[in-house]
Write a structure and sequence with these properties.
single chain, five-stranded parallel β-sheet, 2 domains, alpha/beta, 10 helices, about 230 residues, Rossmann fold
Length: about 230
């Protein structure tokens, strides 16, 4: 069995479209914190490519998970990725008695650090990296989507959880400058648990800081501070 892990971004979508075969399974794990443009992009993949996407969601959701754990995830303890994506996918596959499979992951050739960190063979799960093997880089992905009749209509920095701590303070400030309405759920998390996602600064403080920014940042040019491996 071949399992494609699609995050809702351009790269994993490219991998899925170019390598999908009838009978494969395509899985998107919804944390509930994605930008609405991500869901629209997934809808269009199904519409234009005729590729069915299985959408999974943890029974507790993001907020429910941190309430249960009484903790806030951070760059050192990324239990959100583990619980909301990795374990959610594995539980679903086990429910179908799928124990041995190939897991397709969209790491590009220009992301060697992600590839080398992840590259391993589990006892019953074999990770596959078709984009890395084919030497596909970011410029190839950009060129590909320029030729398509639809696209992800949000900046890449808004992909995955919209104000994830892995994006870093500067990126989150720029995001809140344009999209202040995204902040409240993150603020609620921190106030409920009494801890912050980023050391030394809360989302409430970042929201206030963003209002004082004089420069208008181009979100399409902003990169996350930390390398994210938010995939299944």
């Amino acid at each position: 069995m071949r399992i494609f892990n699609i995050s809702g971004g351009r790269t994993s979508a490219y991998m899925t479209i170019e390598h999908y075969k009838e009978g494969d399974m395509v899985i998107f794990c919804d944390t509930g914190r994605e930008h609405k443009g991500t869901y629209e992009f997934l809808d269009n993949i199904e519409k234009f490519e005729n590729i069915p996407i299985i959408r999974l969601k943890h029974e507790l959701g993001f907020s429910g998970l941190i309430e249960k754990r009484k903790a806030i995830p951070n760059i050192f303890q990324r239990f959100c990725t583990v619980e909301l994506k990795i374990k959610t996918t594995r539980r679903y596959l086990r429910s179908l008695n799928i124990l041995e499979y190939e897991s397709f992951i969209g790491f590009r050739y220009d992301e060697p650090q992600r590839y080398l960190k992840r590259k391993k063979h589990w006892k019953k799960v074999t990770d596959k990296f078709p984009l890395y093997d084919d030497k596909i880089s970011k410029k190839d992905i950009i060129s590909y989507w320029k030729r398509k009749e639809y696209d992800l209509n949000i900046p890449a920095i808004l992909g995955n959880c919209d104000a994830c701590f892995m994006k870093g303070e500067n990126a989150i400030l720029a995001i809140y400058k344009d999209f202040p309405e995204l902040a409240q759920k993150w603020i609620d998390d921190e106030e409920k648990i009494g801890k912050t996602y980023l050391k030394g600064v809360s989302h409430k403080q970042m929201l206030e800081k963003s209002k004082l920014l004089m420069k208008q940042y181009n979100l399409f040019e902003i990169e996350p501070k930390f390398n994210c491996a938010c995939t299944n």
